[in-house]
Amino acid sequence: MALKKRTVDGDGDGDGDLPTETSCLVLHDVCDDPPTVLSFLKLDEELVFRGIISLRVLLGCVWMNGFMFKPRHNAIELHSPNVGSCLVVKADDLPVSSSLAQYSDGNTAERKRKGLKRKRVKRVMLTAVLPVDCDQERISEVINNSGEDWMSLGAVVLLQQQESFLVDFITRIDKQFLNLYGAYDVQDQQAVTTCIPRFQLNSPTHEQCISISSQWEQSAADILKYCMDTTTSANPLGTRNSLVIVMCGAKNSGKSTYSRFLANTFLNKYPQLTYLEADVGQTEFMPPGFVGLNLITKPITGPAFTHQFPPLVAHFFGDVSPKSRPGFYLQCVSSCYWHWNNDKSIANSPLLVNTCGWVKGLGILLLADILRIVKPTHIVQLQLRGNLKNAPAIDFKFLRSASGWRPEGERQRQWPSIGSSHPIVYILDSCTPSGIVDQPTHHRLLALLAEFTQMFKREHMAILSDSENSERYLGNVTGPLSICLPYKVSWKFVAVCVLHEKVPQRSILYSLNSSVVGLAIATQDMLEEATDAPDAWSLRFLKEGSLPRCIGLGIIRAIDEKGGHFYVSTALTESQLQSVNCLLKGNLEIPLCLLFQGTGKPGVRPYVSGECQSLVLGSSVRRNRQQLLRRRSGNI
After folding, report:
1. Domains and CATH numbers, the chain
2. pTM (2 decimals)?
3. E strand or H helix at 125, and its extent?
4. How does pLDDT run across 108-131, given as a tens digit for each residue?
5. Tell me: the pLDDT tens digits for 376-426?
6. What is the rounded distance in angstroms from the CA atom of residue 321 to the CA atom of residue 621?
7. What is the C-alpha to C-alpha distance for residues 575 and 529, in angstroms, rounded to an integer?
8. What is the phi/psi pair of residue 326, to 5°?
9. Distance of alpha carbon 59 from alpha carbon 42, whole angstroms
10. Using CA atoms, how far apart are residues 457 and 474, in angstroms rounded to an integer?
């Protein structure tokens, strides 16, 4: 893990023994395994880091991407990989003395006026709930012997380096992510201010750090105030408050960053928040290709692949762009919105809607339809400065006149009449750091690997007959797919569907073999009647226009044509699979790093051939190249 110190003011003035901008940040090494440090932060001081750490606030308050961590919160895991912006942990701008009233006894006002004694502050920290593997005696010694001016500090935090099965798997199986959580790249070695085992503090740089602008902070504060004002005695918690916020903007405009910031801001006041994912290409809590509804109860402390969890309801769209089936895409969005609007358990939860970064041509038509479906109270539009890829201004005129993809009659039924009120629109500038080049393909690959990583845990691995190979693979999480125990599924009990192509029934098994499929639950009225044909090719199919609920992903490893079985590898448990009765094939592909991982036999790569070249006609998928410049047609 790599840390660095950054002072917001940059004036270098300190109080007491606190460090200046050119001196070392006050850190104390309190444990070697795992590496743990105790950090004393002055007012408004920031820590920027790369790696995985567990953060525990012992005193004061720290801010991280909109959420305020306090001593009452449990330790939380923060992820700051090299594929995105650095996370920033910032001390509060109020001194510790202003946040200690809850720990005092007797005359609180008198104690607050005179100031708490230093031994009282130490006792508060020493009685904090510390991690079990910490050297508590060493921490107590550091606190008792420290000469810090406790009352003028902003926060005291405990930072502990963490290990992750997910990160170990990704960094070993794909070489391009070998330095996913590597140390901070420092060109000038003299810039290093402090170095203790496994911790490195560097001089400040703003090129790769998340910097929340005052414009973003003000918009989030306004939306939060609006939500709290609507939750009154006439509309208490537990009733529908109808707060819907839609985030829109071009690619790399910062929609995901703003969504995390806004969600964390709301979690300071609300216990939960609902999130409708409509960006199938860069999902936040699910693998790519999904449209779903998630319930957020914890602060978001890392990129998307670090916090994947099951949704309330989800539909497998099966592609990273809605252009192939726009009608089916809008059907998925409508279903998720209907679930939010009718589920009483989330009636008091505001709804955040994340949309695609495709805002030209068909993309803007789909955005107009989504706005008419979810009926937002607030719209946040993020703009890239001087970029022609920006969407047109989503103002009142656009909402009234923009044509959508749906037919005119259906669109008018979806959109309510606008009378005394209409959505509040915020048009904000992007805050994407200049030193970060966002790669959506990397985010999609990491999210897929995060989903399939669960298959390589010990409970999903096959116990091989060869004891030597068993020890070899069970101790190495990056073994071949063959070590993952597949489920044998009779195709008499599951229906199949190819979502984005029309495949003849005679060829459908060829298209399903070695493919990523959505594991879905369909009602009986969605399934076609099973045929009594004697041949093994008689499969059950999904009816046209059906929308089953999807609960996860799987890989069809093999198909037994004679026995009529699919062999499916998945991270779902056996109890979860009991309700699955439909396999949905989209356009998602198995990550190549899983296919090229060693099988124990040199040169053997299942489903990979070197004989077929992409130059052969029809050997590759036809793709549109939208980045090519088109010749404008002039007047003749």
Report:
1. 2-201 (no CATH), 214-429 (3.40.50.300), 451-595 (2.40.30.330)
2. 0.83
3. helix 118-126
4. 444 444 444 455 555 555 555 566
5. 999 999 988 776 778 788 877 787 777 778 775 455 545 554 434 678 888
6. 15
7. 26
8. -60, -35
9. 12
10. 9
